[in-house]
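Issue: copy button drops trailing tokens. Both records pasted manually instead:
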Amino acid sequence: MRGLFSTIFLLLVALMIITTEAGKNKKEKGKGSKGASDCTDWRFGSCVPNNGDCGSGLREGTCNEQTKKLKCKVPCNWKKEFGADCKYKFEKWGECDTASGIKSRSGTLVKALYDAECQPVMMATKPCSTKNKAKSKGKKGKGKGN
């Protein structure tokens, strides 16, 4: 009986060693196939949309003599003015300017991604809402028998 347990134990140890070695080789292959480099000073350009002036696109990066492209996205709303690489914290919208029909708010730069050149303060504007926000939410007079 001891002989059987010894044989099973040796087989398990051998199997663990083989599995560990196979895992190491697989990891090393994965590293080489992804094109990993020693370069640490990548410089990326701005995101260039595939079509038009917003939407999905590519950003090209260079480091020494190497280049690579990353997927990116330029917002298709009022944020496209400063792009996706400049992150701002915005205040609440101000009151509507009745003369121009526009309201505004300012944002302070929080983070610049990919070494983007961002303005420290950004102003955003939008047309004033034409909806009357004081509308009642109750539905009076709509039920049966009214």
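Record 2 (pasted manually too):
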Amino acid sequence: MAWHCSGTTNEEMVIKLKEAGIIGTDKAKAAMLAVDRAKYCHKSDPYQDCPRQIGYNVTISAPHMHAYALTFLTEQLFDGAKALDVGSGSGYLTACMAHMVGPEGHVVGVDHIPELVELSIKNVQDGNPEFLEKGRITFLEGDGRLGVAAHGPYNAIHVGAAADTLPQELVDQLAPGGRLICPVVAIEGFNRFQHLMQVDKNLDGSVKKEKLMDVSYVLLTDANTQLSN
């Protein structure tokens, strides 16, 4: 059903994602209703269920991928949780996560393109200004592959681009009971895939990894490589 959940309004898009079973929790649905995609995707037909270019060789992911991510992370995005959004881009998913962690929670969005950091701040100011005014979101410029240890450990980490290998720094910054969602490149023979990986850190510090689905994301690279692609 993915790619068939476009709408003419934000509400219609979210309802279709819920009816298709892609939005799997009421909390994820509420977040996507509260954060209007049109404030973060400045294209015609912002509610199309497809990725859209936002400049600097990156995209805002398709709504169905945001819906999956918020569903997979729902239990970790509890009231008062700390979360990290790597490759925060337009700021859309960061804002959805901020809605889910509540007034006492904190979400850090990190991107290595300064213009995208500025864009995300402007988008949240236009769409959900209370998240910035109340300090629920912090946007930073930096190499997201290294995480942001100063604000961790995190209950939830989302990575919005495909890593060559799972970044160990991000796993290290997970709190016990935390969950990381990250696309990871896999090579099988002459074929190159991307698997969406779920990494759970148990209370004893041990880690469990699970492949959720095959996906297609832009690559998680350094800023110079991204801009030259």
